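User: Run a structure prediction on this.
Assistant: Running it now.
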Amino acid sequence: MKRTFLGMMTGVAGGLLLATPTIKAQESVTIDAGADLVSAYIWRGQDLGSAAIQPSVSIAYKGISLSAFGSYGLVSTNDTKEVDFTLAYEIGGFSLGVTDYFCLAQGNTYTQQPYFEYAAHKTLHVFEAFAGYDFGLASLTWFTNFAGADGLNKSGKRAYSSYVEASAPFSVAGIDMSVTAGAVPYATDFYSDATGFAVTNVALSATKEVRFSPTFALPVTASLTANPSASKCYFTIGVRF
């Protein structure tokens, strides 16, 4: 369940904060493409599986972007299989957008759960809207599910499951770092540990370019992520290609 390009993914896929190579189709259009290899897939403090390859691509023009993200487990066939699309707009420090998540887990297969099933109560797609602001020293973003396979609240009704996240980048000894805190504001079974307000994601990430030869280097990110609500802690590493 990753990723819009608006900082949504801090703490996702092990908290990768890695730049992607850029190809310019025109002076005002940019296309980014790459892939992350992660030791575990951690999303908003939730464990979505073991080691995975996560390709991504995006195209942006004058603040408008369309991006795609996938995740495919490398160890177990039961690990998450995911395809997401995000349409977003950014102006100044303000950003907003919509993500279509499609996520198969726990042994589901594509033949059992067709991608192009959008009927209510049948679809596995989750549609999420988000809005945020980057204040410079830190950013704050709110995410809310508004359609699709959302979770339920304590009354058994659609929860409009939400998540709010604050993130602050900084640098220590020339290493790019980030600290993130995220919480679920009210009860929903979409986030399994949220029976009310729950802090589900506290992460510290560090990224360094590791040089393998004079002409070849890769950015490597190490992340320590805690989920206080679930009493879980994860230490992950990721490499960007």
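The chain has a mean pLDDT of 87.
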